Amino acid sequence: MPYENLNHKFREAITLDNRRKIYDLVRSNPGCHFREIERKIKMPYGTLRYHLNFLVKKELLIEKKDDNNIRYFSMEFNSGDYDILSLLRQGSIRKILVFLATSKYCAHKDIVSFTGLSPSTVSWHLNKLLRKKIIARDDSKNWNYRLILDKENIIRILIVYKESFLDSLVNKAIEMWEN
After folding, report:
1. Domain 2-77 - what CATH class?
2. What CATH architecture applies to the domain 84-178?
3. Where are the domains of the chain?
4. 145 SS3 class
5. How far apart are CA 147 and CA 137, in angstroms?
6. Could you give the C-alpha distances from 59 to 13, 74, 102, in angstroms and in order?
7. Ramachandran region, residue 73 (left: φ > 0; alpha: ψ -120 to 50; beta: rest)
8. Which residues of 15-46 are buried (b: 16+ CB within 10 A; e: fewer)?
9. pLDDT digits over 64-115, tens only?
10. Minimal CA–CA distance to 36: which of 88, 1, 71?
11. pLDDT tens profile 142-167
């Protein structure tokens, strides 16, 4: 069990089955948000809110605000990866980032074609990624986009947490990267 690394005070905090279920889920699916936890555990809203607040107060979990969601991470999660994993948890952005991670430069039309999203939706997500300084746009190269972040770090996160994504695109990107 993953509880050996926790000191006595923390082990005591997760003695209840509900808290242990929540802790285990967040530990294996870092960056999941409240409704995702609620769906996976099938726990009533008030009960889940109470136990999440308790686990955050006892410093077993961390809450990170991400636009309209609060995402949860275990304390042992690498804090430098909060933002990128929060983005990878969003399906449309994950598709865009996987495409950018496996290509050098990408034109808007290529991203639209790859993701199957509408051009306006792709533009909205690209602007969000530009604001967060995840990608850059090279105006001199016909509006091509490229990742600013380390591609290997994105792929590493995808590999480490691939089970929590349940996405065939992620599996294909990992296979391509490993070969």
Report:
1. mainly alpha
2. Orthogonal Bundle (1.10)
3. 2-77, 84-178
4. strand
5. 9
6. 10, 9, 37
7. beta
8. eeeebebbbbbbbebbbbbbebbbeebebeee
9. 887 788 999 988 777 778 888 888 888 889 889 989 988 877 899 999 999 9
10. 71
11. 668 988 888 888 888 888 777 776 55
